[in-house]
TrEMBL record:
Residues covered by the Helicase ATP-binding domain: 274-456
Organism of origin: Cuneatibacter caecimuris
GO molecular function: ATP binding; helicase activity; hydrolase activity; metal ion binding; nuclease activity; nucleic acid binding
Sequence ranges assigned to domain HD Cas3-type in this UniProt record: 15-210
Signal peptide span: none
InterPro entries on file: Cas3-like_dom, CRISPR-assoc_Cas3_HD, CRISPR-assoc_Cas3_HD_sf, DEAD/DEAH_box_helicase_dom, Helicase_ATP-bd, Helicase_C-like, Helicase_Cas3_CRISPR-ass_core, P-loop_NTPase
GO biological process: defense response to virus
Stated family: In the central section; belongs to the CRISPR-associated helicase Cas3 family.
Entry keyword Nucleotide-binding: yes
This protein's name: CRISPR-associated Cas3 family helicase
One Pfam family from the record: DEAD
Keywords (A to Z) from UniProt: Antiviral defense, ATP-binding, Helicase, Hydrolase, Metal-binding, Nuclease, Nucleotide-binding
Amino acid sequence: MPEYISKYHAHYNPDTDEYQSIYAHLQATASAACKKNSISFIESIIHLASLLHDAGKYPDEWQTYFENRIQYPDSAQGEKMDHATAGGQLIEELAPHTVLSELVQTAIYSHHGLQDCVSCDDSSFLSDRRRRKAESLPVEECRLRFYEEFDKKQIEALCVCARKDAIKLLQTIQNTMTTWKEENLYGNRDFFLGMYERLLISLLIDADRRNTEDFMTGEDTQSTPSTEELQRIWSSCITNLENHIAGLEKKTDSPSNPHGINWCRSEISRTCRDMAEKPQKRFRLTVPTGAGKTLSSLRFAVYHAARYNKKRIIYVAPFHSIVEQNADEIRNALGMPELVLEHHCNIVLEGAAEQARYDRITEDWSLPVIVTTAVQFLNTLFADKTGNVRRMHSLCDSIIIMDEAQALPVRIMELFNLAVNFLTEFAGATVVLCTATQPLLNDLPRNRLRPCGHMVPEFESYEEGFRRTKIVDDTMRPPGGMDASEAAIYILEKAERYQSVLFIANTKACARRIYKKVLALCEGRYDVRHLSTSMCPKHRSDVLEKINENLSQKKPQICISTQMIEAGVNISFGCVIRSLAGLDNVIQSAGRCNRHREAPLGYVFIVKMCEEMENLSHLKDIRFAQQAMQSVLCQFSGNPESLDGRLDSQKAITMYFQIYYVKRLAEMCYQETVEGVPTNLVDLLSSNPAFAPKAKKGPILKQAFKTAGEKFEAIEDSGKITLLIPYDETARGKLAQLEEPYLAPSRKKQLLRELQVYTVSVTQTERRQLEAGIHGIWDSHILVLDERFYDRDIGVTSEPAPLPELFI
């Protein structure tokens, strides 16, 4: 039978002068979406949505618009023309007033950008808005031509299956929640239904984009590994990882030292490997700092992936420094670097082809092992851009390792809990929460995390083997808190005794003042360094390299830093001083002290700065953390045995988080104001009570996906802007190229990637202070800082260096 040739076009490739038909695109998109899908009872739903998503391209009006865009790409005809509404109308005709129709309509209308099912402007329903819009569109022509190419009886049969699956979807949510204790304890039906909808949108966007991209490039990148291929991959990963671990264990303590640090690491690792056999969906890996949780959690993951046919392993960490460090460790341990994708904004690759491949695999996280930041992970779940939504289906049937889980912002807690509950209860994922200080996510009064099993059940038995530091409360020296001089003298006293000292401040301003004071008082006896996010990443890397060099050579070293050094930086000082902060921060800081057991015991001192030194009026997280920590310190001072005699004991950690969370329960749902109305993102992504009409009848989907996605910020940036820094000759050379007037867009994009390590983010207030030192290029879309406003020791400064004298 000859292949069907359609006369209606969806895409045009100018390089080959070839057209892709609508029919071919819809069929290929549906096939790809079904292959990428991991949940059996949504397959017919996504199949139907894929076949209908571009039905609006059939009419003469759209075909003419399409041809005009090809011939006159820069003319007014280049404006977008609606091609989604018609497909939504076709499904409503096939399954009027049904859940299926809502699910498919919302996916189709969102495949070029999320939509609000209930408008936050006028409380109108998405289906009503599109029905009114359809009145001015050639829907009848779409219908006739769609069924000219697709067998109507087959579409109707598919629709019957999809209606059954939509009912099964609702029943699955209801049946699962019925087994839970009470409503809203672990989430609500509307939130989970909304997550299923986002998953449908993700599958449609990815299949649609990938098919279009393949047509435009002439490639076939749609293939996904079969179960057999994945098993071979996991088997190879297990072999390579076991060989890697065996090599490390040759360096372990002798059997005569059964409770040494390396023996403890090996025991923890073996326990994690054995736990991979269990079918449990959520685990906590609570082990002391330095226990090797990266390799232990990876060992669990590869065995669990092989045992339960998981599609990928996704390692998530809060900071770039941890991601970069652990990505290298994971690549080395698995022995197959081509299987590992490291995804964050600082990745730069040489060569256009290599960069293009990297861009392609970051779009859908298609590799078996993903190493990424918490920002990328959370954006995939909640942010509005289609590039974020596109990746969500890759979280299904995966193993997700959340490192440093305690670093999640408080306002995201409930959203995070509900997302993990969805992924593990409904989407086939296994989630591992790794940290030395587990937050009490299971104990919230609502929207709590479903129960987790302990991957290392008797983790407290290993604590003594990892004890390298003692935390000392010095917050009452002096009672009112230290000023810059007192802090500098205190630091130098410790330096005399311990030779190397790290001081961690809560604010950049405090760190800067103390750095200058220590520098003035030490009279050259110590190498004194400063670290903060006022310095570009390349500058910070250079400073850390110099500090590590000095420490390895036992040279006297002082470092004054902000909390950016607390986690994920492999560095070891003789003594750490931490400005009063949360207990989780203090314990993370302790990880930078006596890290390699250079001494029998290292000391971590907690001090308090006076109010004039640390202005925390706009740093609510730190203020609340300080208050909770002071309660713990007070308890410890009066009755240390109640906390097992240590400030880093599990009892102390539990007490800290209980106090901290009680004060912040109201914030955990991500509070927002929309159109002057107080609401929160949990509500916006659920039944949307602030904006949904009160009538009982009406569509079941009420989520404001678009509004919630626009409001969501994984890291609150409060309108921060990015400055490019001419830090060294490399940066200056790339900036000079960037200012060339006829720079090709592809080269511009590559240069901006390469300049990521030369960027600093500043607030709008800081920008105004730096106004005289900022100049814009490319219509001021890119901002560059004058070298005079960048200090070689402290980074961005509003006090510019004087201009060099001119000799006549």
